[in-house]
Amino acid sequence: MKVLFIGGTGVISSACSDLAVATGITLYHLNRGRSHRKIDGVNQITGDIRNKQEVQNILKSYTFDAVVNWICFTPEHLQTDLEVFRGKTGQYVFISSASAYQKPPQQLPITEATPLENPFWQYSRDKIACEKILMDEYQKNNFPATIVRPSHTYDQTLLPFDWGYTVLDRIKKGKPVIIHGDGTSLWTLTHHRDFAKGFVGLLGNQKVLGEAFHITSDELLPWNNIYELIARELGIPLNPVHIPSDYIAKIDPRMEGSLLGDKAHSMIFDNSKIKRFVPEYQAKINFAEGVKEIIKWYENHPDWQLTDPATDKLIEEILQKYGGE
Per CATH, is 156-188+219-269+285-323 categorized as 3.90.25.10? Predict the structure, then answer.
């Protein structure tokens, strides 16, 4: 089977690339060749998917059993893919997002039939718009579409909080760290190697055309526990301060989508559909194991230990303002 990944070296796609190659798939990457993640066994095609004419020229002699675009974010991006890959692939996989599901959720657990509606995050609304266009193309023109909705998927480089290493640095120094809400909302963190097992099983499968899937762990963790696991791995007591999500977003509007449109809500996923189509799928890496990889990575890569003074100042500002009310 011959498969093209557009991108292919990101947090999620790197594990999918590794597994695809390991299972005997002839894998091609189309990207600019700039990532620090190097994938062995991949056929590299250097190009920029945002340049439609360039990509059409590069790929004019290629056909694929499946094409996956890991960096398609807007309807404009999708329209380019429809023009480039129509008639050149037996399957087109669109990477959507579980953040597209209804926020706040009206019913749990989340299934693939849960409505797609997110008034808080443009990123999610763009993914929803792409899904609608793609399903219309499938139904009207038989375009061979499959939709995959990852939730919070991580590797050893990805910290689970939006303010990045600055928060980890605060934990290491015993400073107060903000946990949104009361920290009891449930969250799902999926290791990228687990995700890959479900995802690669969809490639080239004609039975999944016209279908949508989320692929997540079945482990449910309150946010308090997520922070505690990190602090415990560091061997440092956690100093948490709980602040309402809407208050945080009021001070830092950049957080509205990520918090109010996603992390502030308990998200419990029913994975029975992916397990039905890919029976071998099972997420086995819990976050207590995954966090060891994360801490080890940062300890061994001082160049990744980057704090942002502006973010640290912002955290202090939120703490002071909330404490003064």
Answer: yes
